[in-house]
Write a structure and sequence with these properties.
Length: 160
C-alpha cells in the first residue's frame, strides 16, 4: 500500500467490494434452505418467526462490511481483516452444516467457533477503530442468541 491516502473513489470502491464480499457469505443458503426438514423440528416457544431472519441478517451484514471498511481505511489490508474473513468463512459454513446436512450438533460446534471468531474480530477491530468495534456488537449479540437457539434445537431434536 502506498503512503498516499486513498482517493474518494478508491474508498467507495473498497466499501462496495467489502459489501459484496460480505454478502457472499449467505449465498450458501441457496443450496441449503430450511425447507420441510426445519419446519418439522420441535422448536422452543421463543423461536423467531421466519420473516425476521432476512431483515436481521441484511442489517448485520451491512454493519459488518462497514466495520471492515473502517478498519481498511485506517490500516489497509492488515491482520484485523484476516480475522474478519475467517469469521465470515465460519459464518458461511454454518448454513450448509445446519440446513444442508441437518447436523444440529456439528452446527453447534461450528457456531461456537464462529462466536469466538466474531469476538476476536471485534476485539482487534476495537484496537483499530472504536466505531468498527461497536458495529460488530449487534452481530455478536445476534450470534449469541443464534447459538442458544442452535443448542436448544439440538437438545429438543437429539433423537430425530
Amino acid at each position: 500500500m502506498s503512503n498516499n491516502p486513498p482517493t474518494r473513489s478508491r474508498n467507495g470502491l473498497m466499501l462496495v467490494g467489502l459489501i459484496v464480499a460480505t454478502f457472499c457469505a449467505p449465498l450458501t443458503g441457496i443450496i441449503a434452505i430450511p425447507g420441510a426438514w426445519y419446519a418439522g423440528l420441535e422448536k422452543p416457544s421463543w423461536n423467531p418467526p421466519a420473516w425476521i431472519f432476512g431483515p436481521a441478517w441484511t442489517f448485520l451484514y451491512t454493519l459488518m462490511a462497514v466495520a471492515a471498511w473502517l478498519v481498511w481505511k485506517r490500516k489497509g489490508w492488515s491482520r484485523p481483516l484476516v480475522f474478519y474473513f475467517v469469521q465470515l468463512l465460519l459464518n458461511a459454513a454454518w448454513t450448509p452444516i445446519f440446513f444442508g446436512a441437518h447436523e444440529l450438533g456439528w452446527a453447534l460446534v461450528e457456531i461456537v467457533a464462529m462466536w469466538i471468531a466474531i469476538l476476536l474480530t471485534m476485539v482487534v477491530f476495537f484496537r483499530v477503530s472504536k466505531p468498527a468495534g461497536w458495529l460488530f456488537a449487534p452481530y455478536l449479540a445476534w450470534v449469541t442468541f443464534a447459538t442458544v437457539l442452535n443448542f436448544t434445537l439440538w437438545r429438543l431434536n437429539a433423537l430425530q
